[in-house]
Task: structure prediction
Amino acid sequence: MSPEPQNHIVRTSDRLGAFLTIGGDLVVARIGFGAMRLCGAGVWGRPRDHEAARMVLRRAIELGVTLVDTADAYGPEVNEQFIAETLHPYPEGLVIATKGGLTRPRPGAWENDGRPEYLRAACDGSLRRLKLERIDLYQLHAPDPRVPLEESIGALADLRAEGKIRHIGISNVSVDELRRARRLVPIAAVQNRYNYADRSSEEVLRECEREAITFLPWYPLEAGGSASSTGTLARIAARHNASPVQIAIAWLLARSPITLPIPGTSSVAHLEENVTAIRIRLSPPELAELS
Result:
């Protein structure tokens, strides 16, 4: 049998200049890529322009991105399939993080399912679609109010013991839920909504800092606040010859050494804008202004 062809993506830069470690052994660049937008409208179905979406994924890797975040609910399922179609066999060092625990019964609907049997089936499906033998970071997409959190986390702990998951993450959780999960199994990452305009997960971020847990802020670019052409972000952006979006990402990077923003886009130009925000260094007075 002939060997599987190698992926011909060539990184223009193997270093984005800053790294962090997830779970003690996964070294990744400080900016990841959230692949959710590489679906059809409403996060449903395949992207309208397949080739343009492939270009975005490939360009992310070329720029030095080493973590791509997805979920079985994106599409549903087709986002994982699309990543594998575009990037497999994966470049060395690339981490594919995915999630289970939300279902999509129809467009516009997101429903919880944290039952252990469902999570086991969801993980197996992600492994198959992503063409992986083990998922480096598998996250509970959200606690299910109908299922004790300990049961959901216990299912992920079992999958980890079986070698199907390398590290466990949780998403959309409170400090109490994070602590309950950590009583059962090591938690390597937390993914909560957090950005310049919405800091409701501040206490969760600080808990992650105390426990050396990577924090992935989802929705890092608040459509109204972080992308605004006026206000504090815009004033600081003008000083750096940057965009308000880039300052919003730079703020997240400066907010804590454990943050790993995962901005998503379906545009190569916006991708490049997001990634180059890592080069911006905000001064102490600017950080105070943004606080």
User: Anything to note?
Assistant: The domain at 19-223+258-265 is CATH 3.20.20.100 (TIM Barrel).
